[in-house]
Amino acid sequence: MQGKILIVDAIATNRIVLKVKLKRAFYDVAYAASKAEALEAVGADLPDLVICALSLPDGGAADLCTAFAQNPLFAPIPIIAIGCQEDTAARMATLEAGVHDVLRQPVNETLLLGRVRSLIRAHNAAAEWQMRDDTCRALGLAENAAGFEDQGHCMLVSTDSVLLQKYAGQMRRVLRTKISLSSASAVMQQMSQDTMPDVFVLILPTNMNAAMEDLRLISALRANAQAHHTGVIVLQTAPDPSLGANALDLGADDLMTDGFDADELALRIKSVMRRKRMGEQLRATVRTGLQAAVFDPLTGLYNRRYAMPHLDRIAEHANTTGRSFAVMAADLDHFKRINDIYGHASGDAVLVEIGHRLRRALRNTDMVARIGGEEFMVIMPGTSLSEAQIAAVRICGDISSTPFIVPGSATPITVTISIGMAIGGGEPVASKVPKDCGRALLDEADQALYAAKGRGRNQVNLGRPAA
């Protein structure tokens, strides 16, 4: 299933119609007929999205959203409201309560599914970052979020300069945000600049071909590292459900289908900015925490704290899929002599260069970690025995063939490494994989390493599983 959706509507016919549309798109659907039932259902099984009628016997979509906000577990769940209400003030009150969008009956299926995909995708991404942040906090690595926020920067984008000036004038009266104007082509030309707006509002022309051309900006933004997380709101000057759904699928954060309304656009801009800043704070916290928690400060490689759980996950995945993987335990030969003869600064220089050479000799999907003083571990997922042996021999050759330049020696010094290797996975396992499966495989590689040392060092040795 693509996600869990809770439909909240007192009218059974409405629930059935929505169920048919969502089931066709392979969503898991649950029901509730009132706000009370919805809160009970969400408490029992958190959905990825709630689609709620504007009016319920005991409240409505806005009341449900307010109730969600009071529970930290419920608050992140996005809500779409559906109803026949044409009252602009009531619509704005619903959006101000935190409902992500208000769709009018009868709902266009294409637009609805586009909204559903977009909101669930954003919800899952936010949930993943939140879990990482929670892990960092549990490890005592998170920093408190900064309290100060600047006014933000919003850029209105259109080829119609007269329309841009008109909209900008109205927006400046209702939004305390820096507002600038541009065209889609100009934005794409300047995308490499250091400072990007917090939010782009892409105003689509009524001409379909011109609108499709402007939508290319969304793809360009999402593919650009500098602008990847910039907010994008698409404003349609003429309703077109297919075009709106396409904009959401391309990565737009929000969509206005019924033309320009300054108050509603200001509300949506503030909402997208708020989500963007929360995302930035989470990513910064996670990056800072992970840097301290899982990387070796000298070599920049992963450390044991990260490597062991990662090895367990790789082992579990390999035993589920039947794909083999390799584990290498590597140890520098006679490393103590380097420290004794040339000094610890030279030993550190060797370790740093070893990290560089290990990374160069491996694939992007492989993981290399420093798990002790001069001890390293390599995990190669989806790797056969022959592929792993070739890689291990290559590592030995890369290290021994080129001498190391170190600060304590006038001439480069020769360094060698010994590697023990073990192969895991290879066929699917129906039963649950033991928690210490990865640890056992590393022990096997360690034993092979000791054998390689005993046989003269600077070589690779394949371990044999215990009987």
Describe the structure.
Helix 5 runs parallel beside helix 9, helix 5 packs parallel to helix 10 and helix 12 crosses helix 13. The chain has 15 helices and 18 strands. The protein is elongated, with a radius of gyration of 28 Å. The model has no long low-confidence stretch (mean pLDDT 88). Helix content is 49%, strand content 18%. It is α/β, with parallel strands linked by helices and 467 residues long. Helix 8 links the parallel strand 10 and strand 11. The strands form 4 sheets. A 6-stranded mixed sheet has the order 13-15-16-14-17-18, with helices on both faces. The longest helix is centred in the middle third of the chain and has 33 residues.
Number of helices: 15
Strand order of the largest sheet: 13-15-16-14-17-18
What proportion of the residues is helical, as a percent range?
Answer: 40-55%
Say what oligomer this is: single chain
Number of strands: 18
> N- to C-terminal separation?
42 Å
* % residues in beta strands: 15-25%
- Determine Rg (CA atoms, Å): 28 Å
Which features does this protein show?
467 residues, alpha/beta, six-stranded mixed sheet, five-stranded parallel sheet, 15 helices, 49% helix, 18% strand
Could you write a compact summary of the structure shown?
The protein has 467 residues and is of the alpha/beta class.
